[in-house]
Write a structure and sequence with these properties.
729 residues, OB fold (Dihydrolipoamide Acetyltransferase, E2P), Rossmann fold, seven-stranded mixed sheet, seven-stranded parallel sheet, 25 helices
Length: 729
């Protein structure tokens, strides 16, 4: 029953998976790759989907009642023996595999048109098999095309594999090559449930279970794999989803508690001359939302507890000004501030912005990026170490070993999702518990914010300095010339335009257009009467700055660019944004690019150029037809962008379309991966889990009450590395 190296009486749910009968060394290594290391992990291996095989019928009964099934697409299960298999030739010369099943009351044909040789090898005459699919009648015989099937034994003709709601498990090619297909995984999980489910201990307090109608853990585990009804499956899912969300929120609640009760930070005593001086020279009035957020930040900064705040705001809402005022508070109190951006071009753009805003104030702003010349870099490093450099803008170059701050008091991290957890930590460690302000220009849906940043205090700038006047239109590439004519007319009126491409140069594998080649074409053939500029990420920083400055001053009328202008200098006169191959961009990226226009008083226009094949319209000219799933998703993204300017609504849709793991375009380091919960749809459950977790930590921060003992045991088991064990008695 188990490996001979482990005594039968000693194997538990915590035992290594290799000791389970039917696993062994090779299979255990493959299982580890999908996160199954112990027997307990099998119980939490979530099915990818379920197949309803609860309707088992025989051929005779179906023939008698065929009129009830005709054209209704009812999927049913048949159980019988293979009595024949043969390859047929269709009238068109195509090979067809036919496998005949006899269930004792009649014969059923199963046919395959693809992978003939593969399916032919699967069946032997005499095999007992369960086939599942939608039956039809062909030449007087019941027939199923490309059915799903499982092989059975005489002893279990109706078992965990059929005659019920059946789980289907995800399986890698490596697992399948070792015989661990969904059929075998089903058997292993069923064995562990039958033999070890009684050893599963309840993890949640009785009060929470009864308050929210959550089923016991043993029932949930059994029913998530082998539910008797769909109601059981629903209850099991609700319980396991809640548990995942609750324990994560418990961790975040505990981290928040520790920060507020144990960590000693810097108390910034005053708002001084720099802040007052900046408020006098600021060329515009702060919105009430900006003022509210600055008050939140100031309350944090004057406290002796470290600030750990997330600042959210839509494109153009004024987050950068809020960050700059926060940094000036730190400088007023004798501390340095560091501002970390994810790319050199973003760091350079912020540096230029800060220099322009602060040019009349006595504050030293410095730039530290990898491409600085050695002599210049040494000078900046020296000024950082002596404290002469007061505000330092940079990239990950800020976290290099040679960078020594004299007294780092505030860390601002821009577009933080593009940094890893360790990179953020390394910058913070350059000071002694500095205050931390995390910023994102990508609005984050509340559910995702509660999951990723639930231990942070959150401020949202939910007011724009002015109502943005931007019209967005989806345009087929066959009508591109009309867009060019529109640009020509507007530029003659004094407007400026961006034309954005997804690539820097042409690739043999990618057919969408590139910035460099099209710059030459547009400059020489389309807009020879205007001054055009080109900007992309491979240019030297000084050259990029010169081009952006020329565009800002109106010397360049049309700027050809890649996505490096996602975040840039405000240019109110730029009123036209053309995004080529727009179907290639994500929702957030499209929103960021569009955010470069609509910053002045003039009406602005965003044109999303797409392949004409995506815009084959129906007869009523109202609906789109799609060729495949990816094209459908692309058009859905574009229609969302065209319908709203609200970044938070766009972010919610983006989360629904892509899922939390891909929301930021790349999988974030340390991102929480749930087995059962889906925060894009389990919003209400997440809110409840958060409320209960934070209230529990408030009432019992060390989980020391007797009724919370099982909870504490599971909590430490899940998060032993993340939680400060010394502080949880």
């Amino acid at each position: 029953m188990v490996n001979t190296s482990v005594k039968k009486g000693l194997i538990t749910l915590e035992s290594d998976i290799r000791y389970l009968k039917g696993v062994g060394e090779k299979r255990s290594l493959a299982l580890r790759e999908i996160g199954i290391e112990k027997l307990m992990d099998l119980l939490y291996y979530a099915p990818a989907k379920y197949i309803d095989r609860s309707t088992v019928v025989n051929v005779a009964s179906l023939k008698r009642k065929w009129w009830e099934f005709s054209y209704k697409s009812n999927a049913v299960t048949f159980i019988g023996k293979v009595v024949d298999k043969k390859t047929l030739i269709s009238s068109g010369g195509r090979q067809i595999l036919e496998v005949v099943i006899d269930d004792g009351t009649g014969k059923l044909s199963c046919t395959w048109f693809n992978k003939i040789e593969y399916f032919k090898r699967q069946f032997e005459i005499g095999d007992l098999v369960a086939v599942f699919g939608k039956p039809s009648v062909f030449k007087g015989r019941i027939n199923i095309i490309h059915p799903e099937f499982d092989f059975l034994t005489e002893a279990d003709s109706i078992n965990i594999h059929t005659g019920r709601i059946v789980p289907v498990y995800p399986s890698t090619s490596k697992l399948k090559s070792l015989g661990l297909n969904t059929f075998k995984l089903r058997e292993l999980i069923n064995f562990v449930i039958d033999n070890y489910i009684d050893h599963v201990e309840e993890t949640l307090p009785e009060g929470i279970l009864s308050k929210y109608g959550l089923v016991p853990l043993k029932f949930a585990i059994r029913s998530i794999h082998f539910p008797e009804t769909y109601d059981e499956l629903r209850l099991a899912l609700k319980r396991l989803k809640f548990e995942e969300l609750f324990f994560l929120q418990l961790l975040l609640a505990r981290k928040h508690y520790e920060l507020k009760h144990f960590e000693k930070g810097i108390s910034f005593k005053k708002i001084g001359e720099l802040v007052h001086g900046f408020s006098k020279i600021l060329p515009f009035k702060l919105t009430e939302a900006q003022r509210r957020v600055i008050r939140d930040i100031w309350n944090d900064m004057k406290s002796d507890k470290p600030m750990n705040r997330l600042l959210q705001g839509d494109v153009g809402s004024g987050k950068t000004i809020v960050a700059l005022i926060s940094m000036l508070i730190a400088v007023d109190n004798g501390y340095q501030s560091a501002f970390m951006a994810p790319t050199e071009i973003l760091a350079e753009q912020h540096y230029v912005t800060f220099l322009n805003l602060l040019n009349s104030l006595p504050v030293k702003v410095r730039l530290l990026i990898g491409s600085l010349k050695p002599k210049e870099k040494e000078k900046v490093l020296g000024e950082i170490e002596t404290g002469e450099a007061q505000i330092i803008i940079g990239t990950h170059a800020l976290i290099q070993e040679r960078v020594n701050f004299k007294n780092l008091g505030l860390v601002v991290i821009d577009e933080q999702h593009r940094f890893g957890v360790m990179q953020r930590a390394m910058l913070i460690e350059k000071g002694y518990n500095p205050d931390v302000l995390i910023m994102t220009a990508t609005p984050i849906p509340r559910t995702l914010a509660l999951t990723l940043y639930g231990d942070l205090d959150v401020s949202i700038i939910d007011e724009m300095p002015r109502k943005r006047k931007v019209k967005t239109e989806i345009v087929p590439d066959t009508e591109k010339e009309k867009v060019y004519e529109f640009i020509r007319s507007k530029v003659k009126e004094g407007h400026q335009a961006y034309i954005v491409y997804p690539l820097i140069e042409e690739s043999e594998k990618l057919d969408f257009e590139s910035a460099i080649e099209n710059y030459v074409r547009l400059k020489n053939e389309v807009f020879p009467e205007f001054n055009l500029g080109l900007i992309h990420g491979r240019m030297p920083g000084t050259e990029r700055q010169e081009i952006m400055l020329a565009f800002k001053e109106g010397k360049i009328q049309i700027l050809i660019a890649t996505t490096v202008i996602e975040v840039g200098i405000d240019i109110p006169n730029a009123t036209i944004m053309v995004i080529e191959s727009a179907e290639r961009f994500g929702l957030s990226q499209l929103h960021q690019l569009r955010g470069r226009i609509g910053r002045g008083e003039r009406q602005s226009y965003c044109f999303l150029i797409v392949k004409s094949s995506l815009l084959r319209k129906t007869s009523n000219d109202a609906l789109f037809e799609f060729e495949d799933v990816e094209e459908s998703k692309a058009m859905e993204r574009l229609k969302i962008i065209a319908s709203t300017l609200d970044g938070f609504k766009i972010a919610e849709k983006d989360l629904e379309l892509r899922g939390p793991g891909e929301f930021f375009g790349t999988r974030q380091s340390g991102f929480v991966k749930f087995k059962f919960a889906d925060i894009s749809i389990d919003k209400d459950l997440l809110e409840i889990a958060r409320r209960e977790a934070f209230e529990l930590i408030k009432q019992d921060p060390n989980l020391s009450k007797p009724e919370n003992a099982p909870l504490k045991k599971e909590f430490l088991k899940r998060y032993s590395e993340e939680v400060n064990l010394a502080k949880i008695s």
